[in-house]
Amino acid sequence: MSAAALGAAMLGLPRRAAAADVDAEAGGKRTWRFDFGPGEVARGATQVTAETAYTPELGYGFDDTATLTEADRGGDDPLRGDFVSTESSATFLVDLEPGDYRITLISGDPAGPTDIAVTAEEIEKIPPTEAEAGEVLELEFDLALVSGRLGLTVTGTAAHLNAVEIEALPARRRGRRPTLYLLGDSTMQTYDPYWMPQAGWGQFFDRFLSDRVLVDNRSIGGRSSRSFLNQGRLDEVLRLVRPGDYVYVQFGHNDATYTVPDRYTPPEDFREYLRTYIEGTRQRGGEAIVVTPVSRRDFDADTGRFRVSFPEYVEAARSIADELDAPLVDLSASSRAFLDELGPEGAREVFLHAEAGVYPNRPNGVEDDTHFQEYGAIQMARLVGRGTAELGLRISDHVMVHRSSGAPRAVDGLELVRASASTLEVSWPASEDADTYRVHLGRAGEEPTFVGATAGTEAAVHFLEEAADYEVRVSAQNEHGEGPQGQVLAVSTSQA
To answer: What does pLDDT average to in each consecutive run of 10 residues of the chain (496 residues)?
Structure first.
């Protein structure tokens, strides 16, 4: 909205910003408008000066007026001619009901430069922006407000506030199908094929759900409950959530990394950040499901039993879910029980462990006791599915977790897709009850060795000798273990 349009639209502003005093405007819009500075007040706007301090009775104002100055440059435009400024930082507060809002700021000085950045609810919404004397910046952004008080923090060497308009956005209606938003870290995220065999459990969660729901995995590596929020990622999701949607929240791994300041979140703060996720989702008609931090490959060497990973964060997640009566999937407990059944050595196939040369993108091999390979990610997704089924929610009826009775059968029907001088590509039909497949290859007449795993039904083996004869076998694997290797496929690489 232009400054002129904003000025022309400034009609019907209540004296206070309190939500109860908002006047309904044409089209049912609810709008709050403020004109900053000591000069003439735009028609219908509420004046805010450098001395306007917030009080609960007023419902708006600055939290601290100590750094504020004001100026009136005159002219015939009450929005552009005067303003309130800070040369460091100032926060303007407005009491509002939780909801989604569009916020427009007018910033400029007819006689001097402008340097301003805007943060709202701990999120940088407007990065540092400059303007020359006489220029007016028109800054607009949307925000999902969770608390009952909007805080707009402006920073800069010449941060001017000329006007602010806050428009309540319309509530969203229930979608045709519920969407499940997955919010978490690298143990949950979806990976591109380049990262094979690394995977997150959110990548495979839809395997255990009906096609009557949608899955939107927003998880991303290196994020904590705090940094995910501060980067605006929760805000993006809350501005999409519709009534009937679900938001799965699993953090803790990065919250505990005290050596990384922008991630670290003490357990007591972690608990309160989860409160924001839960309440923000509920305010928009959705349901937040708290997931306790998934276990790492961390065990007692004497007993072989797995330890609770990040116990303070597990307890904080359980505690806030209990306080707010929020659904809880205790993945910490279920994943640890699953790993105890496998034992420390068996758990290597769950986590990102591979010998040198098995995967081209990891030529030196890898030993990672935090992240999963595809087999492990699928097992964790299955555990979350089972946990969801036990919650008794509407989404529970969409969980489809087949309980197999044992390891999969042998995989037969292998076919050669392509052969080159150094690469063989093979495919096979899907095997019932299989989660992943393990490919074994050897020179003709020799015992085959493991050369890679995949959740799909085809694989490529690289760096082979040219004009050589090989034998390929494939076995299937599920939560009960690995089944027998199937029929042999005799193949040969070509001559270079």
So the answer is: 43 34 50 96 95 97 97 91 96 98 97 97 96 96 97 98 97 95 98 93 97 98 97 98 98 96 96 98 98 97 96 98 98 98 95 90 92 97 98 96 89 96 95 94 93 94 93 95 95 92
Instruction: Tell me how far apart the alpha carbons of residues 84 and 329 are, in angstroms, rounded to a whole number.
Output: 49
Task: From the candidates 371, 398, 431, 440, give the one annotated as an active-site residue.
Answer: 371
Topology of the domain comprising 415-492? Immunoglobulin-like (2.60.40)
CATH classification code of 179-398:
3.40.50.1110
Please count the other Cβ atoms lying within 10 Å of the Cβ belonging to residue 127: 9
Task: Answer yes or no: 349 catalytic.
Answer: no
Integer Cα distance of 113 and 130 in angstroms = 7
Active site (annotated) includes residue 353? no
Q: Does domain 3-168 have CATH number 2.60.120.430?
A: yes
Q: With a threshold of 0.70, does the pTM exceed it?
A: yes
3 state DSSP class of 28 = helix
d(CA 304, CA 175): 47
As beta bridge partners, residue 399 has: 209
Q: Show me where the domains of the chain are located.
A: 3-168, 179-398, 415-492
DSSP conformation class of 449: E
Q: Residue 132 catalytic?
A: no
Nearest CA to 348 out of 443, 453, 242, 202 is that of 453
Helix pair angle (267-283, 311-324), 10° resolution: 40
Q: Which of 367, 432, 465, 466 is catalytic?
A: 367
